[in-house]
Hints:
Elements: H1 3-12, H2 21-43, H3 47-72, H4 81-90, H5 96-115, H6 123-158, H7 161-166, H8 176-194, H9 203-217, E1 222-225, E2 239-243, E3 246-252, H10 263-276, E4 280-284, E5 294-303, E6 306-315, H11 336-348, H12 354-387, H13 396-403, H14 406-425
Parallel strand pairs: 3-4, 4-6
Antiparallel strand pairs: 1-2, 2-3, 5-6
Helix pairs in contact: 1-2, 1-6, 2-3, 2-6, 3-4, 3-5, 3-6, 5-6, 6-9, 11-12, 12-14
Amino acid sequence: xxxxxxxxxxxxxxxxxxxxxxxxxxxxxxxxxxxxxxxxxxxxxxxxxxxxxxxxxxxxxxxxxxxxxxxxxxxxxxxxxxxxxxxxxxxxxxxxxxxxxxxxxxxxxxxxxxxxxxxxxxxxxxxxxxxxxxxxxxxxxxxxxxxxxxxxxxxxxxxxxxxxxxxxxxxxxxxxxxxxxxxxxxxxxxxxxxxxxxxxxxxxxxxxxxxxxxxxxxxxxxxxxxxxxxxxxxxxxxxxxxxxxxxxxxxxxxxxxxxxxxxxxxxxxxxxxxxxxxxxxxxxxxxxxxxxxxxxxxxxxxxxxxxxxxxxxxxxxxxxxxxxxxxxxxxxxxxxxxxxxxxxxxxxxxxxxxxxxxxxxxxxxxxxxxxxxxxxxxxxxxxxxxxxxxxxxxxxxxxxxxxxxxxxxxxxxxxxxxxxxxxxxx
Length: 426
């Protein structure tokens, strides 16, 4: 993995909003640290390992200054690195993820190298310092990107708030979860109208834009970003929106151009609602190209004797006529063992997933039976080739011809077991 390449790509997302000269300088320091590491290994000169740490320290302090300016809107001129650190910590500016990376680097590399002039670092420590500062820089840049998009969208929507609210006259009289549906549909229209290259917008940008949009339209909504709802399972939904005593869990997924997968995010949402004891969740797939129609589907599930509601908001794709597709629908298969492990994991999270495993077992039984005549046909063809002294193995064309009609059988079984049963239980 090229961490510097990832950091450079993220810096481009900020070019249109803020000066990235400081971030470019941080990248230069990390590049220099890598060069010192290579030189130390090639020349067998351990002194260069300390030079690695000095350079990563400069990158560390540089990113703190960038974070201070971008996340607080203040200038860092005249402030010492210590003053900046104290402010960022005391005002809890960092997200929890960034804070953990900040604490790790400061404790293991910056503080020891600054306060102990007799300290010498080895190759492993120098390597880990580069990885640690690269991770800190990358994740902190995500927070900066999200924050910049939040404030840009907030400023843009403030100018047109009344016009947007005028398009949803029912907003103030519907329930909170339906208010969120209206907000997400309007947000989708806004980004299709104003954003270019929708397919290339990263999730952190979408979350920042959405936060700015919601805050501008309805300031009464409290937005909780990646709240930890289970320390044991380390579960963090993208957002939890709160209004009064009502809470709605939001999970955002980027749709692939041409289709999107529903199964995994739906099961993840069920896990959030189950472990966090929430009643309402929204899966939001933002549009990936302009002029897409947005579809809303509502599904109910029973979790441990209580009913939960999941709303799926997604662009309609002409290829699927708005129908969500799964890995099985597309004929993209895991091995049987992999799928069994996957369903066993789901089932272990609670009784609500047991039905999925039962359905899968039936699916595999039907598929295994359906394969029998095709396997026999393949064996018979191999026997014929043996008799004719031809090459023993089958060609790709022969295999395709044998298994061509199996795909249609597979789709029929999938429809009978999955699509029809979903309709019956929906």
